[in-house]
Write a structure and sequence with these properties.
heterodimer, A: about 325 residues, Formate dehydrogenase/DMSO reductase fold, globular, B: about 270 residues, alpha+beta, Alpha-Beta Plaits, three-stranded mixed β-sheet, binds iron/sulfur cluster
Chain lengths: ~325, ~270
């Protein structure tokens, strides 16, 4: 599948943003962080900023961005529609929670309920994003039970990294979020590795034989394609990263996403003083960059069944 | 509404494509383009239409554009047994089309009255998700219009009372020089197309996907490699016998006739 920059930016930015919002909601309602103006301002600016930037980016690749509101209408059948609704609905409790925190210094009680609702909305939105992909039977690497868990865990992981940055600088249970980041990072690595093993082992059900129905006659191969140059279907669905590059890119994703942050985080826990901010910030940046590579790969590694009409033996 | 019609349409207008006789001439695709660039989803935009260059990802120097119908050619089997099969591919107007249910705007829909799958160009936002959901590569995006386009089963021909009745079929069907394409109601077991499918073992493409395509493909007939396998000699013998019987005995020049009779009867 062709990796569209706007979609990659959207899922990784909004993933981190919702992860952070999820933790802000729980931490605020649970009193794990002070309801301070600074933490509130920076925390909501960062989380809602990432979410909003991501949502805006996701409309860039539309043919008609001015009609984007129509995408909210088909929630009965469409996960894309549900994602849009969940994203917008989440703004309501998140906004109220932010008002309580920033203007009234209140994060518990009624305001805490808004926080928990915002956390719930964050989880629901990420799950919907994952389901957009997981619901497509045409791409076996996406139509996979681990796709939604991977989206959720990576959102939590990136959220925890940024929450650790915020609490270390602006106050709160920083230790807790550092530990959470380490656990979520390990979990993300485990889930994603298991996912990669699973898609590598799976045997494609669709072949050029089932696509054309000519399989009974023997091996089916393309003698002549339908067009002299690459058409829309070949450009959009035919993109595929070479196997050897995929292996290297997986390594890069793992290195940036998990190994570098997990090497840096202990420095933060063990050390003391202002300098620990540097490794912590680098860990958060690296972890986020790792997710961008992971999302790019998620597209580039996906093989669409339509490619079996265009010369692929199986997909 | 992108929820599928409930109950499912009983009328299922669709195509039956005979892979045994398609000669791969692309006439159906060309006539489709011709009709539809002025039809329901008009225009069918082309880019760099007169360029001789190949188009690669990222550089748009090659000629490409929106087509509803595309003709592939495959080779199946090995060596002397291999067959060349021409394979027209267009929207199959599936009974379970995920292209419709994933559409967030309701622009994609399946018609209750005849099962035809259409895109409303006034509400489509061009998110392309439907093209990801289609296993058959039937949807093509128009960058100029910013909306998705696809086969309309020539909705603007088949019900068009301004056309002669014989022309009220999809453009591809009307133009096929070898009659490899048939149009009709596949929901009616007694229709000509349904009978053809039953008789020739018509099948679904990618049945494992579960989209239940309405359009059916007729397989190439078993190969005949010798003249004998065509059944012609048997028929000729019968004809010769008939001719011999028809020769009146004792008529003038009977020697010649009886010689011919003898020759034919060998
Ligand atoms: S062939 Fe593709 S576009 Fe046509 S109805 Fe089926 S899934 Fe939809
Ligand atoms: S491209 Fe248009 S028709 Fe296709 S899913 Fe998006 S809004 Fe619907």
């Amino acid at each position: 599948m062709h990796p569209a920059a706007s979609v990659i930016f959207f899922t990784s930015a909004s993933g981190a943003g919702y992860g952070l919002l999820f933790l802000l909601g729980i931490a605020g309602a649970g009193g794990l962080v002070p309801g301070s103006l600074a933490l509130g301002l920076v925390g909501f600016a960062l989380s809602l900023g990432l979410i909003t930037a991501g949502l805006m980016a996701s409309t860039f690749h539309l043919g008609h961005p001015e009609r984007a509101w129509r995408a909210l209408s088909q929630w009965r059948s469409s996960w894309l529609s549900r994602e849009g609704l969940a994203a917008i609905a989440t703004y309501i409790p998140a906004g109220l929670f932010a008002v309580g925190w920033v203007f009234l210094g209140e994060t518990r009680g009624v305001w805490g309920v808004f926080g928990l609702l915002a956390s719930l909305g964050a989880v629901a939105t990420i799950a919907c994003t994952g389901m957009i992909y997981a619901s497509l039977p045409t791409i076996r690497q996406w139509h996979h039970p681990m796709v939604v868990p991977v989206y959720l865990v990576l959102g939590l992981y990136n959220g925890a990294l940024w929450m650790a940055v915020l609490t270390s600088t602006l106050g709160g249970e920083a230790e807790l979020f550092l530990d959470l980041a380490i656990i979520a990072g390990l979990l993300a690595a485990a889930v994603k590795t298991a996912y990669w093993r699973s898609i590598d082992r799976a045997v494609a059900k669709t072949t050029s034989g089932t696509a054309t129905g000519l399989g009974d006659l023997g091996r089916v191969r393309l003698l002549e394609g339908p067009s002299t140059s690459r058409n829309y279907v070949m450009r959009e669905m035919g993109y595929r990263v070479a196997r050897k590059h995929a292996a290297k890119l997986r390594l890069i994703a793992g290195l940036l996403g998990v190994l570098v942050p997990l090497a840096l985080l202990p420095l933060v826990t063990l050390g003391s003083g202002g300098w620990t901010m540097i490794p912590l910030f680098l860990a958060a940046l690296s972890g986020s960059a790792g997710v961008v590579v992971e999302r790019w790969l998620f597209f580039a590694e996906a093989t669409h069944v339509v490619t079996t009409y265009y010369g692929a033996e199986a997909a | 509404m992108t929820s599928l019609p409930n109950p499912a349409p009983t009328k299922k207008l669709g195509l039956v494509i005979d892979l045994d006789i398609c000669v791969g001439c692309h006439a159906c695709a060309v006539n489709c383009k011709e009709w539809n660039t002025g039809g329901h989803s008009a225009p069918l935009t082309d880019w760099n239409a007169y360029s001789g260059a190949e188009a690669e990802d990222g550089e748009d120097t090659g000629a490409w554009g929106v087509w509803f119908n595309r003709i592939h050619t495959y080779e199946a089997g090995e060596g002397a047994e291999a067959r060349t099969v021409h394979f027209p591919r267009s929207c199959l107007h599936c009974e379970e089309p995920a292209c419709v249910s994933v559409c967030p705007t309701g622009a994609s829909y399946k018609r209750e009255e005849d099962g035809i799958v259409l895109v409303n160009p006034d509400t489509c936002i061009g998110c392309k998700l439907c093209s990801w959901a289609c296993p058959y590569g039937a949807r093509e995006y128009d960058h100029e219009d910013g909306v998705m386009k696809k086969c309309t089963m020539c909705i603007d021909r088949i019900y068009n009372e301004n056309l002669e009745e014989v022309d009220r079929v999809p453009a591809c069907v009307s133009t096929c020089p070898v009659s490899a394409r048939h149009f009709g109601d596949l929901g009616d077991a007694d229709s000509a197309v349904s009978k053809l499918v039953a008789e020739r073992g018509g099948y679904d493409l990618m049945p494992e996907m579960g989209y239940k395509p309405v359009n059916k493909y007729l397989p190439p007939r078993p190969r005949k490699d010798t003249a004998g396998a065509t059944g012609a000699p048997t028929r000729l013998e019968a004809l010769a016998a008939q001719a011999a019987d028809a020769v009146p005995t004792g008529a003038g020049g009977s020697k010649l006739l009886s010689w011919v009779d003898a020759m034919l009867s060998r």
